[in-house]
Amino acid sequence: MTVVTGIAIALVCTAGVCHADEAPAPAPHEVVKKPAPHKVVKKPAAKRRPNAQAKKTVAHKNATDHGVSKTKTDPERASTQAHMVKTTDVEATPAYRYGSLSKDACEAELTTRKIAFTPEPSPVPGVLAPVRIEGPLHGVEFRGDLAEKARAESPYEIADCRLVLSLDDFAEILTTHGIVEVRHYSMYRPPAKDWPADKLGTRHNGALALDAGRFIDKAGKVLDVTKDFNGAIDAKTCGEGATPNPVTPEATELRAILCEAVDRRLFNVVLTPNYNKPHKNHFHLEITAGVKWFLVH
Questions:
Q1: Are 74 and 243 in contact (CB under 8 A)?
Q2: Which of 113, 118, 150, 255 has the greatest CB tally within 10 Å of its CB?
Q3: What is the rounded average pLDDT of the residues 217-241?
Q4: Is 133 inside a domain boundary?
Q5: Strand pairing category for 209-217 and 179-184
Q6: Is residue 50 in a domain?
């Protein structure tokens, strides 16, 4: 305890805590020695330990955009990370090359390939190079279920030019399986009305994805993703060990079509009924501009 005396008040400090207390006045001519100043020892700040979770969490933005939580423990996010694929020759892949094209360069390639298309004249929020496909690609028609007149005005029939290039390559695969028509649910989905005029979208907001539900061959036989894929949530889609359950001719054919596109790296993102329930009835085929990875789930 340290006591600092004064004329009538004593300042009592105990364990670094001081308070005033009454004290007798000093005797005449008494020499009062001032005590040494009480030193306040500051405790060093505790060192912050590195956040192990922060180190381990490598949240993939485009995967998160597909409904995957950034929380490390979220099983869907962990599952998605397990299905991410990187390749050493990514810049040579069709998906990467197409995604890097400008509007003019893309439309020039459509013209070179003699693909019938019409640029969408009105502003299309979120879309870099909006076009409508005006004919089959290698003999394969990509279309929604609407009647012809309604399709001509439907926003769901708008595609970014870069997606069309990938679909053109995909059509080459489809013809080897006798497919002449692909029925889709949508390509472009308009964003919210307050979407900034100069902001480019991704996935359906950017008209860079197609949701293919049914594949129809020359004889009219339909391969329906809902009925014929025979997958299971989080099951492997392509590659060694991937197999439908049960194995049927239709399921085997659907896998062959899809996995040939995967092997050729025509799309950055391929989502199937193995991904989650919202994808139970279609294959989500997407170009993602500027990335060097592939997601097959």
A1: no
A2: 255
A3: 95
A4: yes
A5: antiparallel
A6: no
